[in-house]
Amino acid sequence: MSQTIIKQHIPREELLASGHLACPGCAAPIAMNLVLKALGPETMVVLPACCWSIIAGPWPQSSLRVPLFHTAFETGAAVASGIKAGLASRGDTKTTVISWAGDGGTFDIGLQALSGAAERNEDIIYFCYDNEAYMNTGIQRSSATPWGAWTTTTPTRDPEHHPKKDIMAIMAAHRIPYAATASVAYPVDLVEKVKKARTIRGTRFIHILAPCPPGWKTQNDETIELARMAVERRVFPLMEVENGGTWRFTVDHPGGSIEEYIRKQARFKHLTDDQVGLIQEQVDARWEILSNRVLHGT
Amino acid sequence: MKKVMIGNHAVSWGVLRSRVEVISAYPITPQTQIVEALSDMVADGSLPAQYIKVESEHSAMAACIGASIAGTRTFTATSAQGLALMHEMLHWAAGGRLPVVMADVNRAMAPGWTIWTDQNDSLSQRDTGWIQLYCETNQEVFDTTVQAFKLAEAVNLPVMLVLDAFFLSHTSEPVDVTEQEDVDRFLPRREATFKMDTSDPHAFGALVRPDAYTEMRWHQQEAMREARDVFREVEDEWEAITGRRYGAVEAYRADDADLLLVTSGTITSTARHVVDQRRAAGEKLGLVKVKMFRPFPTDELRGLLGGVNRVAVLDRNVSPGRGGIFAEEIRAALYDVPPDDRPILFGYVLGLGGRDVTPAVINDIIDNTRSKASPEREDLWVGVEL
Fold first, then answer.
1. Is A89 within 8 Å of B212 when comparing Cβ atoms?
2. What would the pLDDT profile of A228-246 be if each residue is shown by its tens digit?
3. Full domain range(s) for residue B273
4. Rg of chain A taking only CA atoms, in angstroms
């Protein structure tokens, strides 16, 4: 992507300060930085327990230049609903209120509150940055952990044996006005989706894959490469769903073998070639399903 | 304006008069009529509030916390299992110094399933950092609801007002509903001392290291201490408008008594009746009603109970492995009374799961307290049939 296109699409203003506490190579601050650039300073952030509870900095510091409310693990969507209602009761309908949660706080413990907020079509944007396990507590499996992966609770002799939960289908089933996946390797696509979400009223959900070097056992300088590979090889397709019914891919997904993507991550190093083949089959099968959704809107 | 209403609706009217801006609630018996009436008030425009109909009590409290950090006046109501589900967020509201107000309609905890009253739900939340105010009548429920917002917002602590299931929640009594203009004078719109504000961004609730956490809890404790004085001022102001006050603690016919009953909630009204009857027969008997449980009115109770011969504490609750919770707290408060002034304390556990506490029950307690040199055990269970 040319620098010109990036400059045209991505605002220069920085709302994430330097000195945050993310691990080297972490995708989460990259994602937050891009999202806040797209949303601008009229934004309030609700942060349930996740890696970002640390990244944001300890009291009395904050790495964000917008108001930030730290809250309990399962309450991101409910607290954001409350803030939005509070602002609305005082006549402020323009401030954007976002919840920024990890995969544990979204797929698992926060799903009930998220479902409630989505069903009520609360006027919030819910972001899930997904590093595919409980990374902040030291790499335990979540329902976003992919099949076959090692974590500290899915040891290599008994690795994760459930496929990743289809959170996009769950959110689409709530018929919310806007849901999308996004990637730190596609910053213009990400920023455009967030800008679009900002103009829509009601519950918006954006799911961002966030490679995690300590948790995925990858090199610090491979984060963007892995994020891009996940999209290209159709492991994490980039798409939008409007009103739960209109599915659309937003970039090209050339496909091809996932082997390189898997083998770069030592969390999969115990897998045999046959087992990698099984993951390939899962990815291909899901691509079929998604392609059908795009074609038929179901 | 006088109206006959159930206790639950006395709460709703208090919320209406307080011009609450955000309500978030989830249904549970016996609280539900509070939020049903509020739904009507919001729907007909008499209460122009945002009303978030959440999917759980946990989210109800979380949404109130969000609305409160946005700077607005917020309210919810619950009972029993719902309050227990909120537990984590009760700490969050109090530790975050957010003046959320909640009505808890006292309902016993399951299992087995019960919808009837006792105080174990609210007393289980003793250490969450909420101010707790127990009510005796529907008038007191209305008054306390309005006062709760004033108190909460003055000290930046959440307030739980507590009323007995059915004996108050579903029982009709006349209530003098204070006129809106009078309440407006008493309780202006909330001006938050801190809030989410894009023109002055701050982070709230961030990771705090051991070098500062203790100080945060210290400030919370100091706010609780301050709340005792602020509650007096709030009552002064309310009394000037309405002529009504209750006190953190109320002494009823306690002068010269050699035996004092200690009660909370609706048992108090029954006990007043018994005190009147036995006083008429010449008995030196009195009553102390405890309205405020947190912050605990230690000094007032020492002053009233110190020097009295015997005290009978009536606890509609129990801490398994110990005894009645008010009795336990009062014993601790009396430890610093000079030994000669320390009363013999009888702690009765009764009325659990909604069992009726009649004048006959209270008469038996008084007779038992007078007949024994000292209690056989620290928890004297009343009416247990095995």
1. no
2. 999 999 999 999 999 999 9
3. 249-381
4. 18
